[in-house]
Write a structure and sequence with these properties.
It is a single chain. The chain is globular and about 45 Å long. The protein has one domain. With about 210 residues, the chain is mainly alpha-helical. It has a 3-stranded mixed sheet, with no helix packed on it. It contains 6 helices and 3 strands, in the order βββαααααα. Helices cover about 50% and strands about 10% of the residues. Helix 1 crosses helix 3.
Length: about 210
């Protein structure tokens, strides 16, 4: 019996964009990416380790998700150039060798030759997502970054309201949706992974 999913939902870590959870092993359906503000077990300086779905996903260098950044190495070169503190926080030289970083800058330079403005926008979008996650977590940021973030958030508000599915819902409806997700099989498995309690068996594996 052949089975193909309706949705290909991929949870990724917000900062390094590694795979946290896959909804399906299939790659026939375009990925729907959901970002999670959580420590990646491969890219942190706190010694945090646990199992996730990354071992079941494509190797990062072959992951088509990173094509939007010019490739996996170019993604890390982007962090190194525009967000050096975050690059170091994610492991820096431990995560990327000098050769990989050099190749990343070559790929990034190739993108800039084609459209330097596009690379700048990619960096700005990533920066905004990162700072927004930090603010949502209640972490302190410097006054200058806070001012830049507030200005950028105001600029983006009209576009965000058009895209935000929950913008027309009241607070009670949003809370109910969050509760339902937390109680779903996907929500429960995500919690198990984050708590380090996942057994490594993918949810799509059906035992006889």
């Amino acid at each position: 019996m052949k089975w193909e999913p309706i949705f290909n939902i991929v949870h990724r870590y917000r900062f390094c964009r590694c795979v946290l959870r896959l909804s399906t092993p299939s790659r026939l359906v375009e990925e729907m990416t959901l970002l999670a503000a959580w420590l990646c077990p491969r890219h942190n300086t706190q010694g945090t380790t646990f199992r996730d779905y990354s071992e079941l996903a494509l190797p990062c260098v072959d992951d088509p998700y990173f094509n939007q950044f010019g490739g996996y190495n170019a993604f890390w070169a982007l962090l190194h150039q525009y967000l050096p503190k975050l690059y170091d926080h994610l492991g820096g030289p431990i995560s990327m060798t000098d050769n990989q970083l050099a190749y990343g800058y070559v790929d990034l330079g190739r993108m800039e030759e084609q459209d330097k403005g596009a690379v700048r926008r990619i960096a700005e979008d990533y920066w905004f997502e990162v700072v927004e996650a930090i603010v949502d977590q209640g972490m302190d940021i410097s006054p200058d970054i806070a001012a830049d973030f507030s200005k950028e958030k105001t600029r983006r508000e009209p576009e965000t309201k058009k895209k935000d599915f929950g913008s027309g819902l009241d607070e009670m409806a949003i809370r109910r949706m969050r509760d339902e997700f937390a109680e779903s099989s996907m929500g429960i498995e995500l919690k198990e992974i984050k708590m380090g309690n996942w057994n490594g068996v993918p949810h799509w594996l059906i035992e006889d």
